[in-house]
Amino acid sequence: MKFWVQVHNLPCSWLTSDVAMEIGDTLGEVIKSDNVSEMIGGNFIRVRVAIDTSQPLCRGRIICFDDNTQGFVSFKYERLPNFCYWCGMFSHDDKDCSLWLRSKGSLKVDDQQFGQWLRAPQFNPLKKMLWMSKASGVMLQVVIRVVYVYL
């Protein structure tokens, strides 16, 4: 399955298409985008990846930064279908999971390693604004693309 994956918790200087591609390579086959503005999402980067759905979803990665420190980047998936919150697999839901069935109901929701937090809201860089012209009294609708520049 192909997903847009949002990568969160990166330093501002790492919000680049090159970093998105490198991290995406660790998740599956990266589907290249010629439109860089599709990849930058404000405080996160996005990468389109074909993911092996026979494996659990990846919640994030530990990565090494330029100063030899490590940090955890978390992933959120856009348009994510139903999946099991116990094991992260797409093949079944929570009630049919072998982890849940073996526990005979002793597992608590707090024990789930996956959850709703892996679902990203759909990315939409276009914002609509309404402007009222004082001179003419005409209402104008303007569509703008929000672009974030980090210096």
Automatic annotation (TrEMBL):
Pfam families: zf-CCHC_4. InterPro entries: At4g02000-like (IPR040256), Zn_knuckle_CX2CX4HX4C (IPR025836). Transmembrane segments: none annotated. It comes from the Eukaryota. Residues 51-98 form the Zinc knuckle CX2CX4HX4C domain. PANTHER family: GLYCINE-RICH CELL WALL STRUCTURAL PROTEIN 1.8-LIKE, OS09G0268800 PROTEIN. This is Zinc knuckle CX2CX4HX4C domain-containing protein. It comes from Lithocarpus litseifolius. The lineage of its organism: Eukaryota, Viridiplantae, Streptophyta, Embryophyta, Tracheophyta.
